[in-house]
């Protein structure tokens, strides 16, 4: 639980940073505080005075939360900068709003009522008349219904996937008991309209002609470990000579309970470091007419049991192929250097690619500039605080983590490192891309060069 500080203490810390000439990190060390917290107090005091240091409890509307998020994404601000700009005192609030918005849209940002909802009181049902006042015919009818209901519930529980209570399972159960009990009593026990029952029986008979197709869909889904949705599975079936509509594949996957396990991807703002930067020559032109014409690179981080692993790849924008990559436990320059040497080994004497990156310190390092200049490669860098300028590589990182890292458990960094090698080989050689006419990156490059 985070510690609370009074207004006077925050004011003393903020004034010490602004007026005494002491560095922010030194002030944080003296008071035993996190430097990011001290920076927040300093900026809040600078922007809003003493009022900005007071603890307030404010309920924000969904429209205000949406305005905060849109401003942060549009201007490329960090969460701390956004908190100061809008005078939001609650730490972590913007991160929580961002997660809610991506999971449920604007509706998820609406303030929720606290406490339990009052339970609605149902009017008491009139007690049944005593058995001695009911006729023998009424008792026989009730006995027949209870027998039909008991048989229906037993047979429904015996079906695979029992408990979902869908109309198809109910109709299948009723159909199997029609020779023993009245259809009207069975439909009453299943709470199933008669028209729905006949529709489901007809649909179950029609679905039998898709039995072999369902088996092929499941085989493709299992082979790619749930990474393919109905569009990619449709593309694989068409490559195998199957003339099929994507809507049919989508409907059959819903019946089979198959759904892509990949979460929706989103960009995250990143503010680059200060210093020398090359111009943004790429200008978001993420297409290339030939191999080794335009490259993009970046570094991403993985965490396993408190340890970290860093991945530095280079992607060829011609076909989205990862042509070289290097992994290591620390984000040192040798990580990028090793990747460059592997990538340079793929070049022909006449190749002069454009190499695009962000403004990280690795790409402003003198050794990096020297290695690139020796190969006569033109450098390009994203604008500060704009991750969309390198969206192609950010998209690959999102795919890698969604399709591999978040779907598996790792005990050691070495296990993750070996798995990354296997996934990148799969990504290059087997995983099809709809933008590449349903081919994998290596298949697309090989086919294009063969045709040329």
TrEMBL record:
NCBIfam families reported in the protein's UniProt record: transpos_IS3
| Lineage, broadest ranks | Bacteria, Pseudomonadati, Pseudomonadota, Gammaproteobacteria, Oceanospirillales
All copies of the Integrase catalytic domain together span: 287-449
What's the protein here called?
IS3 family transposase
Xref: InterPro entries: Homeodomain-like_sf, HTH-like_dom, InsJ-like_HTH, Integrase_cat-core, RNaseH-like_sf, RNaseH_sf, Transpos_IS3, Transposase_8
Locate the region Disordered.
105-135
Q: Which family does it belong to?
A: Belongs to the transposase 8 family.
Q: Where is the signal peptide?
A: none
């Amino acid at each position: 639980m985070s510690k609370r500080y009074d207004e006077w203490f925050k004011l003393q810390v903020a004034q010490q940073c602004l007026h005494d000439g002491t560095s922010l990190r030194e002030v944080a060390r003296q008071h035993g505080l996190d430097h990011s917290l001290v920076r927040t107090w300093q900026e809040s005091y600078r922007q809003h005075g003493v009022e900005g240091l007071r603890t307030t409890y404010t309920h924000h509307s969904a429209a205000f939360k949406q305005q905060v998020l849109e401003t942060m994404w549009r201007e490329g601000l960090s969460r701390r900068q956004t908190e100061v700009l809008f005078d939001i005192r609650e730490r972590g609030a913007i991160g929580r709003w961002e997660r809610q918005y991506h999971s449920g849209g604007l509706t998820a940002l609406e303030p929720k009522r606290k406490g339990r909802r009052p339970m609605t009181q149902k009017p008491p049902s009139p007690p049944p008349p005593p058995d001695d006042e009911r006729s023998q015919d009424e008792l026989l009818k009730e006995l027949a219904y209870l027998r039909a209901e008991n048989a229906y519930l037993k047979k429904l529980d015996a079906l695979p996937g029992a408990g979902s209570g869908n109309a198809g399972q109910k109709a299948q159960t009723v159909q199997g008991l029609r020779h023993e009990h009245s259809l009207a009593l069975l439909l009453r026990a299943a709470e199933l309209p008669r028209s729905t029952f006949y529709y489901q029986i007809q649909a179950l008979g029609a679905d039998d002609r898709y039995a072999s197709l369902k088996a092929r869909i499941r085989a493709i889904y299992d082979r790619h470990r749930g990474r393919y949705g109905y569009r990619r599975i449709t593309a694989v079936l068409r490559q195998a000579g199957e003339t099929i509509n994507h809507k049919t594949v989508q409907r059959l996957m819903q019946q089979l309970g198959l759904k892509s396990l990949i979460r929706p991807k989103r960009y995250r703002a990143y503010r680059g470091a200060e210093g020398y930067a090359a111009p943004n020559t790429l200008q978001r032109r993420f297409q290339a007419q030939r191999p080794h014409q335009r490259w993009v690179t970046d570094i991403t981080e993985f965490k396993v049991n408190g340890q970290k692993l860093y991945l530095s790849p280079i992607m060829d924008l011609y076909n989205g192929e990862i042509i070289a990559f290097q992994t290591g436990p620390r984000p040192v320059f040798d990580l990028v250097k090793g990747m460059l040497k592997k990538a340079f080994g793929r070049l022909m004497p006449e190749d002069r690619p454009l190499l695009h990156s962000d403004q990280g310190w690795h790409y402003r390092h003198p050794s990096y500039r020297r290695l690139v200049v020796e190969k006569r490669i033109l450098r390009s860098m994203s604008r500060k605080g704009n991750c969309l300028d390198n969206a192609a590589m950010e998209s690959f990182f999102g795919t890698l983590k969604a399709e591999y890292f978040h779907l598996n458990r790792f005990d050691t960094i070495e296990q993750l490192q070996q798995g990354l090698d296997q996934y990148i080989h799969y990504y290059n050689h087997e995983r099809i891309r709809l933008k590449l006419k349903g081919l994998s990156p290596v298949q697309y490059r090989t086919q294009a060069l063969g045709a040329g």
